[in-house]
């Protein structure tokens, strides 16, 4: 039995030393020291020993158990240390590397222009009015002196949903809604920013969806001179105090007389910037205003056109493509 215990100790110590995983150490511990392990099996044979041999073999068995438990503890500690070092090595963070940078955002150039224009008009006593983008034909056309058979409807190729519902072609549709809500009260001084839609081929200067800001003033004694003063204030604040402006006769069914407004660009010459005019008497009457007592003016500008001129943008599609290389240029705007 002595030889068996010595052999068991030698065999177990060799297996413990050659183990490379904690799972294997657990298996060896069960194999040698478990209730059904090899050491327990050897000790079961002590009943056949003489009274003189039992204490000697018992002492040896305790030495073997102690040696194996010490070997298991040391090997377990060694493997745990190795596993920890390997994990730390695999998860090492180089603190000298630069951290991930968070790029600050900025206002989109279109929104920047809208906010600038709103600030200018609020400073002149205007209010901001809004309306639905899915609009009734009644407000989009008929309230603006464009009956069903009016040829000017061909100027605005529209997205119709039903014969009476369409995507608005201009924010002028908000005019009728606002005037009706006012129930004949004056003064009316509003601007109407928002998206509009027309059946157009997208290219460098056109888009099927774009942004407009319409303006409307209705009161007693409103004149063409006041319209010119308001537009001059807008243009010179947007493009600089020395910007030259001219008004050319034009035609719009909802204003009479009507004008196109141009600004002078040092390199490109005269450029059309917006349309305007005195509110047509029929538009006032449809909204419940006495055109003999009240007059008004209206104007409409494309925000994209203003942005392109102000920031020297050569393609309207840049404003919609969300290209960061383009948008980063406007962080300070």
UniProtKB/TrEMBL annotation:
Co-factor(s): Mg(2+)
InterPro entries: aa-tRNA-synth_II, aa-tRNA-synth_II/BPL/LPL, Phe-tRNA-synth_IIc_asu, Phe-tRNA_ligase_II_N, Phe_tRNA_ligase_alpha1_bac, Phenylalanyl-tRNA_Synthase, tRNA-bd_arm
GO molecular function, one term: transferase activity
CDD domains, sorted: PheRS_alpha_core (cd00496)
Its EC number(s): 6.1.1.20
Transmembrane segments: none
Subcellular location: Cytoplasm
Domain Aminoacyl-transfer RNA synthetases class-II family profile, chain residue ranges per copy: 113-329
Pfam families listed in its UniProt record: Phe_tRNA-synt_N (PF02912), tRNA-synt_2d (PF01409)
Domain of life, source organism: Bacteria
Gene3D superfamilies in alphabetical order: Bira Bifunctional Protein, Domain 2 (3.30.930.10)
PROSITE patterns referenced in this protein's UniProt entry, alphabetically: AA_TRNA_LIGASE_II (PS50862)
PANTHER family documented for this protein: PHENYLALANINE--TRNA LIGASE, MITOCHONDRIAL, PHENYLALANYL-TRNA SYNTHETASE
Family to which the UniProt record says this protein belongs: Belongs to the class-II aminoacyl-tRNA synthetase family. Phe-tRNA synthetase alpha subunit type 1 subfamily.
Name of the protein in question: Phenylalanine--tRNA ligase alpha subunit
Species the sequence originates in: Baia soyae
